[in-house]
Amino acid sequence: MNSHSILLVDDEHSIVELMQIVLEKEGFTDIDNASSAEEALAACRVKEYDLIVLDVMMPGRSGIEAAPFLRELTDAPILFLTARTSDFDKLTGFAVGGDDYITKPFNPMEVVARIRSQLRRYTHAKRLAAGQSGQSTRLQQQTVYDYGRFQVNAEAGELIVEGETVSCPALVFQLLLFLCENPNRIFSKSELYEQVWGVDAFNDDNTVMVHIHRIRERIEADPSNPQFIVNVRGLGYKLIQPKAKGIEKR
After folding, report:
1. Which of 72, 90, 73, 80 lies closest to 115, judged by CA?
2. Which ranges of the chain have pLDDT less than 70?
3. Confidence at residue 217, expressed as pLDDT on a 0 to 100 scale
4. What residues does CATH 3.40.50.2300 cover in the chain?
5. Could you tell me how far CA 145 lies from the centroid of its own chain?
6. What is the rounded distance in angstroms from the CA atom of residue 89 to the CA atom of residue 179?
7. What are the entry keywords (predicted)?
């Protein structure tokens, strides 16, 4: 059985019922549902969820409009579920705090795979942030990737930019950490998605692009002219490591 709590938000009862049946068959037992953005917000005020599946088109406030308010209540991954398929819609979803974007009609098992991947990353990031790696924090050796302008503490789950701690959503941190672990190597968008999200890319190049943008907003002095994470045209992205910097064990 799976102890993760999931909130399904969709005004189409048939979709909620289908997802609940599939998730229960896959071992998820703590599943709540809501049929509107208002119900979802109310639910998040009284319960801490590990993941939210959020429909975009609903009566009243849309999922896109509700996402920023949900982000004030929870840092749980948000998977948008929608019939809208344009790149602009996907980018908008990521911009307001979404972590993944699934279009209707969908394969329920694909949704389950993405949910498992998001939960795995989210749980790991929470443990890092809490210092729960199975040992006492005092005795734990920490790995810090030093890039001069910024440092990434792998065990503490911290991003430090010019001496200041910068908040970093779980998947943004996981992507940055992966790049820090593999400096000066070029990765395609599909490779990054599969390494960090843990499932096949499913044509989700935009997911990686938006998360790269989120990283640049945090670590680059000028995100429009990046010096650390660069785009190698036609190949992908790489993180450039300054010659005098590297990995430090603490």
Report:
1. 80
2. 1, 84-90, 124-141, 198-205, 243-250
3. 93
4. 2-128
5. 21
6. 27
7. DNA-binding, Phosphoprotein, Transcription, Transcription regulation, Two-component regulatory system
